[in-house]
Specification:
Number of strands: 4
CATH architecture: Alpha-Beta Barrel
CATH superfamily: Glycoside hydrolase/deacetylase
Structural class: alpha/beta
Order of helices and strands: EHEHHEHEHH
Oligomer: single chain
CATH topology: TIM Barrel
Helix content: 40-55%
Largest sheet: 4 strands, parallel
CATH class: Alpha Beta
Strand order of the largest sheet: 1-2-3-4
Number of domains: 1
Distance between the termini: 19 Å
Strand content: 5-15%
Radius of gyration: 14 Å
């Protein structure tokens, strides 16, 4: 079973989830929005420091198949940069598979494995 939390970090909600996970000795994956990470970098670091996996939901959680290729790439890059700036360099990208237009995947070339966590 996998536990995931999307769209944080969200202040008290994220802190409450962290306490519950610690009480139950459970780990989860937190998919964070870059804008939220920039507002609360210390909370993003706290999630990672507690041993949870952290992923990116892009910078502002835009639907990648409804923007231009350049905008989609920027969303991904800015989301990853927010996490890196908060000290979380190995984040994966979480996106609905239908949002991954072929041109978007092609634009990242070999880096797509890093972004989407593929083996």
């Amino acid at each position: 079973m996998a536990i995931t939390f999307d769209d944080g970090p969200n202040g008290d909600q994220t802190r409450t989830v962290l306490r519950l996970l610690e009480q139950h000795q459970a780990k989860a994956t937190f998919f964070m929005i870059g804008q939220n990470v920039e507002r609360q970098p210390e909370l993003a670091r706290q999630v990672a420091a507690a041993g949870h996996a952290v992923g990116s939901r892009t910078y502002s959680h835009r639907k990648l198949n409804q923007v231009s290729l350049a905008e989609a790439v920027e969303e991904i890059d800015r989301g990853h940069a927010a996490l890196t700036g908060a000290g979380i360099p190995d984040a994966r990208l979480a996106a609905v598979i239908e949002e991954f237009q072929p041109d978007l995947i092609h634009s990242f070339g070999d880096n797509v494995n890093r972004w989407v966590g593929a083996a």
